[in-house]
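Example 9 (inverse folding). The structure is encoded as follows.
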């Protein structure tokens, strides 16, 4: 009976996946930016008396 051993060096892949998981794990910066943008757009609509569709 034959057998063989396979060794995979996936340290680079593991590092990239960990970095991605760390970024996805903390959504606060992204959500803060989206929220800030929504607030600024709403303020601009009040200042210009326009709706989201651009109509007065």
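The amino acid assigned to each position is listed next.
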């Amino acid at each position: 009976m034959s057998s063989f051993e396979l060794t995979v060096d996936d340290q680079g892949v593991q590092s990239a996946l960990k970095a991605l998981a760390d970024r996805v794990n903390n959504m606060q910066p992204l959500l803060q930016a989206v929220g800030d943008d929504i607030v600024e757009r709403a303020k601009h609509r009040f200042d210009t008396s326009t709706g989201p569709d651009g109509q007065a």
